Amino acid sequence: MHAINYEAPKSLDEAVKLLAAHGEKARPLSGGTDLLIQLRAGTRRPEFVVDIKEIPELARISFSLQHGLKLGAAVPCIAIHENGDMRKYYPGLTEAAHLIGSLQIQSRATVGGNLCNGSPAADTTPALVALGAQARLAGPKGERIVPVDGFCLAPGRTVLQPGELLVELQIPAPERHASDAYLRFIPRNEMDIAVVGVGAALSLDVSDDRVVEARIGLGAVGPTPIFAAEASKSLIGKTLDAAAIERAAKLAVAAATPIDDMRGTAEFRRHVVGVLTRRTLAIAAERARAANQR
């Protein structure tokens, strides 16, 4: 039997010291919905598990129109779904968090853990990419900020260094007429891994329906989540009509690099990227037109 030492620090400094002291032998535990499965399967065999759920800074949701959102790495998905500010100002990210497993899983799973697991098919990561989220990291060398669209390096591999942990996700406050949306395709009705996931965020000038800002994030169609930069750029300054949406959808398809596997072919995934990009843009636009965030 593989013995594991369990630690539950009460402060960020204490957690960093524990992780730094044990390096590659230690793993932080946030919700545990991925780590516990990996431990049982033997795919990860750390000697130390550092439970970060009791650290106040990592367990908070803080939002203001002046400073935006600070989402702690250990905030469970169910708390996001139940938070009025999250549902109002970040509905796409809230939808993505609410799609992770069952309600029981959502009471444990975290957006931070979803990101740090490094899965290309993570639901919340494309939504974070669409929102231009940044990750605040802490480690033995101090703190640093990393854009979420560059956080994942390969399947299961991220920018996190030994002894380093995710503290919070930082997302700008939305403009007056701005919103986001997330959709995924799965084979079953619920509790499945995305075959394709698409997040979109838009800011509009409602006087002429012109796009001021746009970002599109893709999941499950590459070795890492993808920021569809050209598709996003194609919308800026344009009137958001059917032609503009179709152009963005085609560019999003071009940004995807899917593979064939047992859950879908690359050709099918590209088709679904186009479909979901059109739909998420339409939903985000409808929400942005109706929004008055200031």
List the helices and strands and how they pair.
Layout: E1 5-7, H1 12-22, E2 26-29, H2 35-41, E3 48-51, E4 61-64, E5 68-72, H3 77-81, H4 84-89, H5 91-98, H6 103-106, H7 111-116, H8 124-130, E6 134-139, E7 142-147, E8 152-154, E9 157-158, E10 165-171, E11 178-185, E12 196-205, E13 210-219, E14 226-227, H9 229-235, H10 242-255, H11 266-290
Parallel strand pairs: 1-3, 2-3
Antiparallel strand pairs: 4-5, 5-10, 6-7, 6-10, 8-9, 11-12, 12-13, 13-14
Q: Could you name the key traits of this structure?
A:
four-stranded antiparallel beta sheet, Uridine Diphospho-n-acetylenolpyruvylglucosamine Reductase, domain 3, 294 residues, five-stranded antiparallel beta sheet, Enolase-like, domain 1, 3 domains, 34% helix, alpha+beta, Uridine Diphospho-n-acetylenolpyruvylglucosamine Reductase, domain 2, single chain, 11 helices
CATH class of the largest domain: Alpha Beta
Write the element-wise H/E pattern from the N-terminal end onward: EHEHEEEHHHHHHEEEEEEEEEHHH
- The helix content is 25-40%
CATH topology annotation of the largest domain: Uridine Diphospho-n-acetylenolpyruvylglucosamine Reductase, domain 3
In brief, what are we looking at here?
It is built from eleven helices and 14 strands. It is α+β, with helices and mostly antiparallel strands and about 290 residues long. The mean pLDDT is about 90.
